[in-house]
C-alpha cells in the first residue's frame, strides 16, 4: 500500500517562498512512476501544479511556470515543491500525488496540507 | 488558455442515473487526452475513480463508468446512492500539462 505525507510550514509570508516535502512509503521515487503536486484554494476546485519523473524530467502548469520547482530526493525517497513570489492567491491545500506510468491514473494522494500566505 | 468545463451542479434521485461531462475548449475530447475522474467529499483528499477515459481502479464501485460521448469525456453513475453526493472532477492531458475541470457538485436528493 502506497502512502504519501506532505510536510512543511502552514504559514508563509507574502512575497516569500513555499517549500513542501512529500514522503513516500510503499514505492520509490526511483520507480517508473511520476510524482505530482495538486492544490486546492479554499472552497475552490483542483489545480494541477506539476510533476516529475524518476529521471527528473519536469512538467509545470504554464500559469505557474517561472515560480515553481519540483525536485526529487532519492536518498530520502521523497519529492519537494518550491513556489516563489507568493501572494494570497497561493493560499491552498497542497496535495502530493503518485502518478502511475503509461497514463494508468493518479491513484494515491496525500492527506493534504494547508498553506496560508499572510500579508 | 486551455479551459476544461464541467457542469457546475447536478441533482439526481437515489437509485437514478446521472451523467457528468467534461469538455475542452480545444476541441473534441479523445483517448489522447487520457481523461481521469475523481470524487472528493468535504474534508477529504480526492479519490481516483477512472483513468484513460474508461478504466476503473480496483476500488471503483461498479455503478461508476467512464466513456467518451459526443466529443466529451463522461462519467455515468447508475443506481446512485446517497453516499455518492460529492464533488467530481475530470482531468485531461494536453501533451505537457494536465488540466482539471472546474468540478461538478452532485446532489443526491
Helix content of chain B: under 10%
Largest sheet of chain B: 7 strands, mixed
Number of helices of chain A: 0
Radius of gyration of chain A: 13 Å
- Give the quaternary arrangement of the chains: heterodimer
The low-confidence parts of chain B are none
**Mean residue pLDDT of chain B:** 98
- Beta percentage of chain A is over 45%
β-sheet strand percentage of chain B = over 45%
Identify the notable features of this structure and list them briefly.
A: 119 residues, mainly beta, seven-stranded mixed β-sheet, four-stranded antiparallel β-sheet, globular, B: 109 residues, 0% helix, 51% strand
Summarize the structure.
The complex is a heterodimer of chains A (119) and B (109). With 119 residues, chain A is mainly β.
Explain what you see.
The complex is a heterodimer of chains A (119) and B (109). Chain A is mostly beta strands and 119 residues long. Helices cover 0% and strands 51% of the residues of chain A. Chain A contains no helices and eleven strands. Chain A has strands spanning 3-7, 11-13, 18-25, 34-40, 46-52, 58-60, 68-73, 78-83, 92-99, 108-109, 113-118. In chain A, strands 2, 4, 5, 6, 9, 10 and 11 form a seven-stranded mixed beta sheet that branches. A four-stranded antiparallel beta sheet of chain A has the order 1-3-8-7, with no helix packed on it. Chain A is globular and about 40 Å long. Chain A starts with a strand and ends with a strand. The relative contact order of chain A is 0.32. In chain B, β9 (86-93) and β10 (98-100) form a beta hairpin. Chain B has strands at 4-6, 9-12, 17-24, 36-40, 47-51, 55-56, 64-69, 72-78, 86-93, 98-100, 104-108. With 109 residues, chain B is mainly beta. Chains A and B meet through β5 of A and β4, β5, β9 and β10 of B.
